[in-house]
Amino acid sequence: MRWHDVCFAHGRADADALAQRLPATVAIDSFDGTAWVSVVPFRMTNVHARFMPTLPGFHDVPEINLRTYVRVGGVRGIWFFSLDAARPLVVESARITTGLPYFHARITHREDGSGIVYRSMRGDRRSIGGIFTARYQPPEGVSSAGDGTLEAFLHERYHFFSIRWGQLVCGTIRHQPWALGPIDIEIERNTMGNIISMPLPDKPDAAYFARVLDVRAEMVRPIDNDAGVRVTTVSRKK
Question: Nearest Cα to 138, choosing from 2, 1, 4?
Answer without folding.
Answer: 4
